Each structure stands twice: as structure tokens, then as C-alpha cells.
Amino acid sequence: MTFATANSPFGKGVRDGAPFMLVVAPFGMLFGVLAGEAGLKLGETMVFTITSFAGAAQFTALQLMQDDTPTVIVLVSALAVNLRLAMYSASLTPWLGAAPLVQRVLAAFFLVDQSYACAVTRYETEPDMTLPQRMRYYAGSVILVTPVWCLSTLAGAVLGAGIPESWALDFALPIAFISMIMPMMRTRAHVIAALVAVAVALPAAAVPYNLGLILAGFAGMVAGARAEQVIERRRCAP
Amino acid sequence: MTGAGIEQTTLWIVIAGLAVGSFALRFAFLGLVGNRPMPAWLLRHLRYTAVAILPALVAPLVMWPAATGGTPDPARLLAAGAAAAAGWITRNVFAAMLAGAGTLYGALYLLG
Predict the structure, then answer these.
(1) pTM reported for the whole predicted model
(2) Are residues A132 and A96 located together in one domain of the fold?
(3) Most A CBs within 10 Å: which of B7, B9, B20, B25, as the mutation test of the A interface?
(4) For residue B3, what pLDDT band results from cuts at 50, 70 and 90?
(5) How many helices and strands (H and E) does chain A possess?
(6) Are residues A154 and A112 in the same domain?
(7) Which residues of A touch B76 (CB under 8 A)?
(8) Which residues contact A236 (CB under 8 A, 6 or more apart)?
(9) By three-state DSSP, how is residue B44 classified?
(10) What sign has the CA pseudo-torsion A90, A96, A97, A102?
(11) Residue B74: its chain A contacts at CB < 8 A?
């Protein structure tokens, strides 16, 4: 799937990021609808979505605020959902860490599941990319998703409860994430990491404040790293 | 409509806190570690960040969707399975999404 016109790093980023518009649009719309239902005014919804730029955490915060949860716990839970962003940040640092500060600030702001998934996959398959090429790729991967996220939130907030439940917008997120994950299963260690994470995540869903997610994530990472070592040792053994 | 249940002060504290906090989490390593080398054991764990955290985030949402009040829903389970299978076979994000969305709508229509 190569288009002659789209072979620049930026063009590749745009192309890899483009499918995510289909996912981000219903997701943003859903946030707009739910925020309106929770009593947020249009301006409040938009400030919220543009400044935090963090879908899943926004949904968490919105849900907990409606349940009259203490403010501190709302924030801690929502940020716990976002802890994965710190892990993404760490994971991209070997690839982007040498960039100028302004670029790193921008890359950090636009660090979302989609840009991370695109970037880490591309950087690993093309380790010869230069730093400026990696940055241009990164910019391309978010250039479509960002406006679509903001505009679809706006559309959801404006259309409000007019969107029928039968559209099942709630399931856009799981389908999107599953679709992103499967192509990443390049080695047996990746598969083991994912399976262990799921096996821990299901029982750990009962752990309060969304900490089960972090527990499961750590378990998966440790399992993946361990599996990699074992597999490598077996390969080297006589 | 639960409407107007959220206090203005609470709302703005949460909006500001989430904005600052999310950026801090995103910037933590990219900004503060920069191009200093990181130890091999850390890098080895970081390679599995995405394939651990994303499935952990999704698994409970698939098993107990909020839209059905937390009861497992055959249509959503089938859709998740279809997206996973298509993604595994084709290694193509877009194909997996289409398979998932198509199965979801088909199953919702057929199963009610």
C-alpha cells in the first residue's frame, strides 16, 4: 500500500493515522453527548476536551463527577487511567528524546493512544529513520485525528441526546483498541504480555480507583520482558 | 437527564487538574529524561507497554459493557472477537475496525 505522493515521513504519518478518524469521531461524539447530559455547557465541554485531550480519562472524570465522588478521587482516578500516557512517554523517549524541547513539548501534548500506536510501530519497523523524519511522521499521524476529535465532540454536544442509542457509540473505543493491538503482536513475547494483562485486568477490574488497569499493565509488561529473555536464552543455548 | 448535578467549582477544578496532570504524565519521560540513555532492563519492559496496557483497558469494557448495565452482551462479544480475528489475520488496523463495526451492527440487528 504505497502511494508515490505519500512517501515522505509526514505523508506516511497521515496515511497511518487516517483510519483512526473513523474511531475518534464516534468516540468524540459520545463524549459530547454524555457531557451535555451531565449538564455541561457547550463551552465547558469544549475546554475540557481540548485541554486534557484524553478520551478515556475524560469519560472516567465525567462519570465520577455525576456520582458525587470527592473531587480528589475524581482526579486521581482519571489520572490513573492516564498513567498509561507516562508509559507511552517513556517508551517513545529512546526514539524522540533527543529532539529540541519545543518539539518534545508538542509531541507530549499530542501523545494519545493513536499517535503512540502509529509511532512506535513505524519506528520499530524503520529504525533507520532520522530524528526529524520521526518528528514529521509523528506530526502527520495526529494532524487528522486532532481536529476530528474536537469537531466530533462539538457535534455530539450540539446534537445531544438526538443520537439514537442503537448507534452503539459506546463500543467504538473497544473495537478501535482491539484493532490497534492485534497488528502489534509481532512476537510470542508480545502475545504473552497481552494475555497476562487481560488475565489480570478482568479480576482486577474490581480494584477501586481504576488501579486494576495499572496493575494489569505492569503484570503484562513484566511477563513480556521475562518471556523475551527466556526465548532469547533458548535461542542462544546449544 | 441527570442535569446540573455537577457543581461549577468541582467541574473547573477537575478540568484544570486533568489538563495539567495529563500533560505532566505525557511530558514526564520525553521532557525530563530526554536523550539520556535508559537501562536495558527498563527498555525491555517498555517494549511491552502498549501490548499490555491497551488490552488491560479493553478487556473489562468488552466483558461488562456500560451500555448494557455491565451484563455481558453477545453482540459486543462477537464484535470484539471479529475485530481481534481480523486484526490477527490481516495485520491491518482498518480491516479489523471494519470487521468489528460490521459484526456489531449485524449482531445488534439480528440478536435485537
Answers:
(1) 0.74
(2) yes
(3) B25
(4) very low
(5) 12, 0
(6) yes
(7) 168, 171, 174
(8) none
(9) helix
(10) negative
(11) none
What confidence score (pLDDT) does residue A176 get?
Answer: 80
The total of structural domains in chain A comes to 2
Cell of A104: 518534545
Q: How far is A47 from chain B (nearest CA, A)?
A: 8
Of A38, A113, A178, the CB nearest to B96: A178
Same-domain status, A13 and A122: yes
- Using a CB-CB cut-off of 8 Å, the residues of chain A touching B48 are 189-190, 193, 220-221, 223-225, 228
Contact: B67, A165; criterion CB under 8 Å: yes
Q: For chain A, list residues with pLDDT below 50.
A: 1-4
Average pLDDT over residues B83-98: 92
| % chain B with pLDDT above 70 | 95
A212 and A179 in a common domain = no
Q: Is the pLDDT of residue B1 over 70?
A: no
pLDDT tens digits for range B54-76? 898 889 989 999 888 889 999 99
CB-based contact B67 A74, cutoff 8 Å: no
**Per-residue pLDDT at A2:** 43
Q: Which three cell numbers stand for residue A173?
A: 473505543
Of A162, A183, A204, the last residue of a domain is A183
Taking an 8 Å cut-off on Cβ atoms, the answer to whether B30 and A194 are in contact is no
Under DSSP, the state recorded for B34 is T
Residue B66 at interface with chain A, using a CB cutoff of 8 Å = yes
Domain that holds residue A177: 4-183
Judged against a pLDDT cut of 70, whether residue B39 lies above it is answered with: yes
**Closest CA relative to residue A186, chosen from B59, B47, B62:** B47
Does residue B107 sit at the A interface (CB-CB below 8 Å)? Answer: no
Q: Give pLDDT, residue A172.
A: 80
Cα separation, A12 vs A140, whole angstroms? 7
Backbone φ and ψ of A127, nearest 5°: -65, -10
Whether residue A118 is found in the same domain as residue A215: no
Cβ-based burial of A177 (10 A; exposed 0-12, middle 13-18, buried ≥19): buried
Question: How much is the pLDDT for A168?
Answer: 80
